[in-house]
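Box 3.1 A note on notation
Throughout this textbook, protein chains are presented in two layers. The first layer is the amino acid sequence; the second is a token string describing backbone geometry. Keep the layers aligned when reading.
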Amino acid sequence: MKYLLNAFLLLISCLNFDNTVGNQEETQLRNTLFSNYNPKVRPVQDISSDLTVEMGLALQNIEKFDQMQESITLNAWIRQTWNDYRLSWNSTQSNLTFISVSKSQVWVPDTELLNAAGLPEIYTLKGGLMLYSDGTVFYSNPVVLKMPCSLELETFPFDTQTCSMVFGSWVYSSDFLNLIPYNDEEKQIDVLDSFSHTEWEIDELTVEMILREREGHINEEFNELEYSIVLSRFPHYYKLSMGMTIALVLVSFIIMLMEPSNVSRTSTAVFIPLTILALQLTLADKIPVVGYFTLMDNFFLCCFITSMLVSIESGLIYSLITTESKRLYSYLVTKVDLTKLLEKDQKKIKLRKQTKMEHSEEIDTLALEQNNNNNTDTKELENRIAETEFSDASKILENLNGESSSDPAEITEGMAQEAMKDEIDAVENSDKSISISSHSSHYDNFQNYVKTIPYNDKLLKLTYKERLVYGELIKWVKYIDNVFRVLMPIIFLSYIGSLLAVENT
């Protein structure tokens, strides 16, 4: 046990001796290297010669992209390497291959971000400078760089932005300091694995060496490195907003399918452009005010104008159909050609009378058939008469309208009552073999049919000429409404499709 303890103590003393020897070796080397070293002097043997400095940039993260201020802030690593012949050593002086030194101990190039939009924040990193035995100095330091980035927003939100960083020496011209990118292309500019951002991704990284003159320096050119970063936007959030807006416009097109006289059509259509405007305002604070229209501006403008046109058209048509302004129709009477309208109406009257005569003859035929055929079931015959009266009444109403029995605009209460009276007279003048109860049934059926016609009471206040004008007005209003129903979706979808095609280019 005693021998083991002695061996352990001997081993510890040897290790401490080795550490002491190593520390002494590094201390002696540092004393030798920096005994007569001046960190303010450029490390060149000939004062007129230039010193080559290789530089690389590694992007760690986008800390902030302020689109309102048009500036970008990056977390990055700046790497520089050069040779200082005064700080080299050989194996006879020391077996060490490298040592770490502080920034204040050695000469460091004054490389700065020339187009900075703010003061760089430099983190202190111990051992940021590595000195190798051949005199090579490697300097790596993390920085926060803020620079201006002019935005090109014509294709927003499917836009790409190019931000540039210009590095160079403030003091030394190209005759004294030759700033070049790393010979290794992978080290010239790269992205660290930890890089990530929620809205932007890096598409391209480039570096270019530029010789540029500066104000205040006569016949001097400075060597600068311009790093360009091409960023593309993640448009997912904006796509969602655009999709919701398109859905609202499509809803307005569906609302247009409702009857023009339906007040719900107009009241609902009014809220859609307001909703679209609210969506646009939520995105307004995300981009700066520019002197041109962006793709998003054109998109929202198209959706807003389309929905406004739909609401305005629905409101105007509803007002024209439901208005009781006699002044309007009196004015229209003086502006339209009544001759054609009167001729058209006379043709309708003649056709109506002809239809009524045909109907009366049909009633007489059915009555005669009942007298000649005693085996015919009376109830069945009554149903046939009722069906005939019902169908012929539809024909009468169609002739009154000239187009469709569903259009009440051209049917007055007087015309409907006249038609009903004529039919009742025809039934009463038929053969008495048809029972009174049968006539009563036929009367009720026809009467019920006429009462279901949604005529407007305001027509009773109009003159004959004004009713003709009103009917013609309604016809043109519905024609225009049908044109809107077809053209508006086609124009809107075509324009929106052309805008969104930019995403694929």
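Residues 111 and 403 are 86 Å apart (CA to CA). The radius of gyration is 47 Å.
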